[in-house]
């Protein structure tokens, strides 16, 4: 009986340690960036480290399927996931470098904030 209780306690602790962080629904406003080329220390090209600006970022996101992120004004960076970035970022790529608002589930995975959503609202270009 005692071994069984010890085993169940150990299993519960292990399950809690490896379970993903629970997602919390949030509404976040920021600028969409191509995470492959994003450089937070570079101010040129609206946070993008692209020599050719928005067109290059769009090509990387849409045609090469590079991951897209959302950067808030306070510098928080979220990697986008879910329907919003399905099919080579079909919904998000046209808005690359624009300011948008996204409502979705936020979770931390391996030290990265991940925002899963199905749609966005354009705020400004």
Pick out its properties.
OB fold (Dihydrolipoamide Acetyltransferase, E2P), single chain, 24% helix, 125 residues, alpha+beta
Tell me what you see in this structure.
Helices cover 24% and strands 32% of the residues. With 125 residues, the protein is an alpha+beta fold. It has a single domain, classed as OB fold (Dihydrolipoamide Acetyltransferase, E2P), CATH 2.40.50. A five-stranded mixed barrel has the order 1-2-3-5-4.
Tell me briefly what this model is.
By secondary structure, the protein is of the alpha+beta class. Helix content is 24%, strand content 32%.
Sheet with most strands: strand arrangement: 1-2-3-5-4
Mean pLDDT level: 77
Number of domains: 1
* SSE succession: HEHEEHEEE
Distance between the termini: 65 Å
Helix vs. strand class: alpha+beta
The CATH topology assignment is OB fold (Dihydrolipoamide Acetyltransferase, E2P)
Q: What's the main sheet like?
A: 5 strands, mixed, barrel
Number-wise, the strands total 6
Helicity level: 10-25%
Apparent shape? globular
| Uncertain regions spanning at least 5 consecutive residues | 1-20, 43-51
Radius of gyration, in Å, reads 18 Å
The number of helical segments is 3
Annotated CATH architecture: Beta Barrel
